Input
Amino acid sequence: MAATIKQECDIEPELIEGSGGIFDVKIDDQLIYCKLEEGRFPAHDEIVDLIKENGG
Output
């Protein structure tokens, strides 16, 4: 997914390890996707679309 984000959005994603199945995506400390809230892991295109919608 990191390669897709870099290619599609021209940004370098930063992976911060967590535990317990956490998967959050933030732009400038703004949460744009939370696996816990959604109840599922996102599709690659979904994250790219969210990044583009939120100024990434």
